[in-house]
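Re-run requested by the PI after the first attempt was lost when the workstation crashed. Everything re-entered from the original request form. Ligand of interest: thiamine diphosphate.
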Amino acid sequence: MAQSATCKNPVEQYLRKDRMPHIWCPGCGIGTTVNCFSRAIEQCGIDPDKLAIVSGIGCTGRVAGYMDLDSFHTTHGRAIPFATGLKLANPELKVVVYSGDGDLIAIGGNHFMHAARRNVDITVFCVNNFNYAMTGGQVAPTTPVDAVGTTAPHGTCERPFNLPFLAESCGAVYVARWTSYHVRQVAKSMAEAMNKKGFGFVEVIAPCPTLYERRNRLGSGLDRMKWFKENSIIDSSMDTRYVDIGFQQKIVCGEFVDVDHPSYLEMTEAKMANVYGQQRWEEMLREQRKPIGSWGEKE
Ligand SMILES: Cc1ncc(C[n+]2csc(CCOP(=O)(O)OP(=O)(O)O)c2C)c(N)n1
Ligand code: SF4
Ligand SMILES: [Mg+2]
């Protein structure tokens, strides 16, 4: 009997198919990053049951809701503190923050800096579409000078953050940047960042054809992918101080930072073991991390 051939999408297993169709516009780059993330989960060897994803608010923030992982869709700008608490309460978890440039670097910028400074053991992915997309295309701290947004109809005069430099100078141990055209590299960097102890950061430049691209007359999502292909310079040896992004200027991509420093958890645990003695400290940890029953249950 002839058997019908079945072709299984390898990333399907990581998606909540019951939540489809998703909200993203045609040509949006966020979905491409989700595909890369799913492949990174396969590559990194981390048990998906030990992987949690935390996001804030925005089009990118919706990623957490579509992943078939332990997912947390938190308040705007607060994904990092939420993720930090999750990691400290359960160090066996790999905790990924998935955020937009506005969520992570505007309202959440303070948390970003301090989590990197402390080398908190979390992995942060930023989809940078150069604007606050979900709220209608306002300029963000990542919008290149001269680019137009609803809040800067003549072009913004504010200098944007250079995210790889910000992450490195604050203390991140792994820093990479790609565009959504570089799908293999994005997946590889995401997997490497997840396998890193400490604060790992991957920026993915992605099109928002409905708002940023349309207002700036940059064409469709596909046009942007071609533009990314032709205007990216891959140079992992580049000093992050020099990887600023100017409006319609070349984008430097690469894996810029991969260093080792003790993570926040390692430093805390070493300090406490020193203060209380290893045995007492381990007893205290067991006590604190004892699973609790249902909410409100008294011991
Ligand atoms: C406290 C608070 N302030 C403002 C908002 C409105 N808001 C929702 S998403 C967003 C910006 C999202 O931008 P970004 O993180 O870049 O995500 P994108 O939609 O571009 O993927 C803002 C300002 C909010 N939800 N909560
Ligand atoms: S508004 Fe922009 S970022 Fe949001 S889903 Fe549409 S294309 Fe993507
Ligand atoms: Mg954005």
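Saved to the shared folder this time. The radius of gyration is 20 Å.
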